[in-house]
Design goal:
The chain is of the alpha/beta class and 263 residues long. It is built from nine helices and ten strands. A hairpin with a 2-residue loop joins β1 and β2. α5 crosses α6.
C-alpha cells in the first residue's frame, strides 16, 4: 500500500512489466535443460514484487531475461509495452556480490554508468548526490577493501541508482550480509524505493524479507520454474515481523515451498 504522493511518483518513474508465456532452457552439450515454464508476470509502475523459490529453479535467469542480458526463447517480455531486446540503463540488475572494481574509489565506482554514457563531465554532481542518498558521501574517496559488506552493497546500489532506473532488479542483494546488517539494509531498500518511485523485482530465499519489503510475493516451483501462487501482502510501511498477517503469509509460503512442517 502506497501513499498518494508515492503513487504519483511511481506513475512518472516506475516501469510497467508484462511477461506472458515465458519459457527458457539452457543447452548443455547435447542436453536441453528447461529452466522456465510458461511464466506469466505483471508488474505495475512503482510496484515491488518478490520472487521466492527453490535454489536453482530459474529466478535469476528470469531477471537476466528482463535485464536484456539474454534473449527469451519463447513467450513475450514487454517493458512499457515494448519488447526487451538488449540491456538498457532504465533496467538495472544488482547482484548478490557488489562486484566493485578494487582499483577504483567509491566515487569512481558509482560514476561508472555516467562515464559509460559520456555524461560524467556534465553531471559530476550527481555522483555525490547519489552517495548522499545511500549514506556514503564521507566514504567517497575510500576503496572497496576499506568497506564493510553492508557498505559495499550500498555502493552497488548507488551505482545502480545513478542510472535513474525505472526498474530495479535485485538478485539476492542481501544474501551474504550478517543478520544485523541485513535488517538495516532491508530498511534502506524500502526507503530508496519509496523515495525514487522505481518498480522493483526482488529475488530472495528469505520468506520474511520478501513479505517485509514487497507488495506481492510470487512463489515458484522447482525447475523448470512456474508460478505456484501469488501472495498479496496488503500492509503499509513500516511493517513489523510479528504482524499476524505476515506470520500467516509466511507459513503459507513455507508450505508451498515444502517447508511448512519445519516451522
Amino acid at each position: 500500500m502506497v501513499s498518494g504522493v508515492q503513487a504519483a511518483l511511481a506513475q512518472d518513474t516506475g516501469m510497467a512489466l508484462d511477461i506472458r508465456g515465458l519459457s527458457h532452457a539452457f543447452e548443455l552439450g547435447s542436453e536441453r535443460l528447461p529452466v522456465l515454464d510458461k511464466v506469466d508476470l505483471q508488474l505495475a509502475p512503482g510496484e515491488s514484487v518478490a520472487l521466492l523459490g527453490p535454489s536453482g529453479c530459474g529466478k535469476s535467469t528470469l531477471l537476466r531475461l528482463i535485464a536484456g542480458l539474454e534473449a527469451a526463447q519463447s513467450g513475450s517480455v514487454l517493458a512499457d509495452g515494448q519488447a526487451i531486446g538488449a540491456p538498457h540503463h532504465s533496467r538495472v540488475l544488482v547482484f548478490q556480490d557488489p562486484t566493485l572494481y578494487p582499483w577504483r574509489s567509491v566515487w569512481d565506482n558509482v560514476a561508472l554508468g555516467l562515464q559509460a554514457r559520456g555524461q560524467l563531465k556534465a553531471q559530476r554532481q550527481r555522483v555525490d548526490e547519489t552517495l548522499h542518498k545511500v549514506g556514503l558521501l564521507q566514504f567517497r574517496d575510500a576503496y572497496p577493501r576499506q568497506l564493510s559488506g553492508g557498505m559495499a552493497q550500498r555502493v552497488a546500489l548507488a551505482r545502480a541508482l545513478i542510472n535513474e532506473p525505472r526498474l530495479l532488479l535485485l538478485d539476492e542483494p542481501l544474501g551474504k550480509l550478517d543478520s544485523l546488517t541485513r535488517i538495516a539494509m532491508q530498511g534502506e531498500l524500502i526507503r530508496l524505493w519509496q523515495q525514487q518511485g522505481y518498480s522493483s523485482l526482488l529475488v530472495t530465499h528469505d520468506v520474511e524479507e520478501a513479505l517485509l519489503l514487497c507488495d506481492r510475493v510470487l512463489v515458484f516451483s522447482p525447475r523448470p520454474a512456474r508460478v505456484l501462487a501469488e501472495l498479496k501482502v496488503e500492509r503499509g510501511y513500516p511493517r513489523h515481523r510479528d504482524d499476524p498477517r505476515l506470520l500467516e503469509l509466511r507459513q503459507h509460503a513455507l508450505e508451498l515451498l515444502g517447508q511448512g512442517r519445519d516451522w
